[in-house]
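Re: [ENG-882] Designed sequences occasionally contain unexpected residues at chain ends

Forwarding the minimal case from QA. Structure tokens:
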């Protein structure tokens, strides 16, 4: 019989975020595949669990894939952990899931921590539509090109960035979209979790020389037309609703809400009086 692959989310930083189902999956499996055996080994030690570990990262050799495939073919249960958060998002977990399905194994994904969704919600930016683009390119010119493409997106955009490159990235954003609203989260879920919000220049000033900790950058979509003044108050285009807001209203009304009911949460997101949003909704 084919085996069972379980994708197990692990804490972003606070070990208290490990779920009971995740703990049980790690305790009950035959093999733990992971990006970093030292990091996952430390987590298992904290949980009081001893299991054989198999490195399965972006550079894993063919032997690692064969080891997991043989375990699944032999009816064993394999758990997979990324370095942190939801496996399969910006890591080789999707390859492992494909391998398991090709072998006829059962695949289960457990719910748990995700830096992407946490950052979107914590940023305070519109979250009805958003996209995630992983890590930005390490070299300056490709990174600038990527930022220009992302700055043209209508939806909220989420990217990861390393602490030693974040200052260059913020300077490049200041050059490309100086008035765009962004939010930068550092050390998510940890003791020193910090958020910086404003224009790229304001975030850069608030961040100062800080260059430590994992960072997630969230940028408002181009269609939101949001700018930030010196006192961090958000100003919204007065002429019309952004496209994402129109889509939200249409979906809300299709779901049975009246226009007045749908306008209330939208107005809170836009930071505008509900009467103004209602007027713009009627005039669109």
């Amino acid at each position: 019989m084919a085996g069972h692959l379980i994708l197990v989310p692990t804490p972003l930083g606070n070990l208290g975020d490990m779920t009971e189902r995740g703990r049980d999956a790690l305790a009950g499996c035959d093999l733990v595949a992971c990006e970093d055996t030292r990091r996952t080994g430390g987590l298992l030690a904290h949980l009081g669990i001893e299991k054989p570990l198999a490195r399965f990262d972006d550079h894993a050799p063919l032997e690692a894939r064969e080891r997991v495939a043989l375990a699944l073919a032999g009816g064993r249960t394999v758990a997979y952990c990324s370095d942190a958060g939801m496996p399969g998002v910006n890591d080789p977990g999707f390859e492992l899931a494909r391998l398991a399905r090709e072998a006829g194994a059962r695949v289960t994904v457990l719910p748990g921590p995700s830096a992407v969704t946490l950052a979107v919600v914590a940023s305070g930016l519109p979250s009805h539509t958003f996209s995630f683009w992983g890590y930005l390119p390490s070299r300056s010119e490709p990174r600038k090109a990527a930022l220009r493409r992302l700055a043209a997106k209508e939806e909220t955009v989420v990217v990861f960035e390393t602490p030693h490159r974040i200052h260059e990235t913020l300077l490049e954003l200041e050059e490309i979209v100086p008035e765009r609203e962004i939010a930068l989260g550092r050390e998510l879920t940890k003791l020193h979790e910090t958020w910086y919000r404003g224009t790229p220049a304001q975030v850069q000033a608030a961040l100062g020389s800080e260059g430590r900790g994992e960072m997630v950058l969230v940028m408002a979509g181009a269609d939101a037309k949001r700018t930030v003044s010196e006192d961090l108050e958000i100003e919204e285009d007065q002429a019309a609703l952004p496209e994402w807001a129109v889509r939200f209203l249409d979906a809300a009304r299709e779901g049975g809400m009246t226009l007045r009911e749908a306008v209330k949460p939208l107005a809170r997101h836009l930071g505008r009086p509900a009467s103004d949003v209602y007027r713009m909704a009627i005039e669109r």
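QA comment: On inspection the terminal residues look reasonable. The longest helix spans residues 62-73. Proposing we downgrade this to a documentation issue.
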